[in-house]
Amino acid sequence: MRRLLLFLVCIHARSLAAQEYTFQDEWLDHSAMLSSPHVYQVIQDLRGYTWVATAEGLNRYDGTGTRTFVEDGSRDGMPGNVVYALLEYRPGLLMIGTGNGTCILNTITGEFEPNPIAVPELRAGSGKRVYSFNRDSKGRVWVSHQDGYDLLDSSLQKLLRISDQPWARDLQGSHVSDAGWTEDSQGRFWLPTDVSGVIIVDEKNQSVQSWRTHRGQAPYFQRIPIHSFWLDEARHEAWFGSWGNGLVKFDMATKRTREQRFGFTRYGDQSTINHITPLNDSLLLCYTGYGPFMVNRQTMDAIRPAAWLYNGNRKYTIRRRMMDRFGNTWEWGSEGFYQILRVRDSARMLALHPAKTKGALDMLQIGKQVYMAFYYEGLLKLDLERKTYLDVPLPEDAAYGISSLALDAGGNVLAGSV
Length: 418
Hints:
With about 425 residues, the protein is mostly beta strands. The chain has no helices and 36 strands. A hairpin with a 5-residue loop joins strand 26 and strand 27 (about 300-305). Mean pLDDT is about 80; it is low at about 1-30, about 305-315 and about 340-360.
């Protein structure tokens, strides 16, 4: 049994020869790991695994590699290889929507389970495309599929087909893609559809607002395909992008509409906003077919983002963007799947180069300075204000790295080595 040796090393950063580095965001191209570079949706489950829906199967990424699930002809397995929609409707249970119905995967065992859904259009082998899932604030599951919109309970038992209700027939013939569902504070759903603009579904009052009922009252009440949508209730603003029309901001209080076309003079994929996400109170990040732009929410001025947000060598259309709970960004589209490891300004969410995050045992923050102890890499001193870090050299007899950190009365960092 290995003997454990503990001793304290008094750290004086000024007297040690330390090498300084600048924080850099790292772009990781995971496209080669996937069964297909054409990605429809990406989600992260409760255990931290990343699930990728592609045109050629379902991929699970665990940080080092992928496992692929494809149609194998089994009774409860994948009914089709084109995967459009994903939802972890219960911990460890993944609902998968394909071009041929749905199936259920137990993400803990890695085995498919019998499908509890009785809706014919959602059964495996139905031949029907499933576009997207959404779990509402009541725990129910909404499904947009080829033949309409279904509402299921938390056990995936059918409650009703919303699109067949007399008050909601304006939904018929439309679909909602991944991440397009928005539930407001009143419990209404704002649906950015593929052919009927935005449709607002008020289940409580059994009514809808659409281009049929509210034509001319808002720019999104038109028969247009909506590619992106973001609702800011606090500011009474609705932001959206329809095909080829750039970015539109509608102030619901003043009824004023403003547009930003990013200098594009032609209609097409390049001038289409595929995704909108807020960066802070004053900036939005918008993805066009030509790459990302940052937009000032007040002036509507658009600028190219900083280098960490855009790699000019990438030549694919970004469809969606997701921030995971570890502070990393995932981007995907028609020709690629990328992860951006970004250093956060919060010590608890620091995301460094992967080689610097394995084996971290302890962390000590003193103002804007953070010391991190690593089993293999030793001691790291981070300057959150300057966004740099120092590799602090260790004594020769501390060969096994640092296991614990503490601060003494004199302001020195005490490092315990194994």
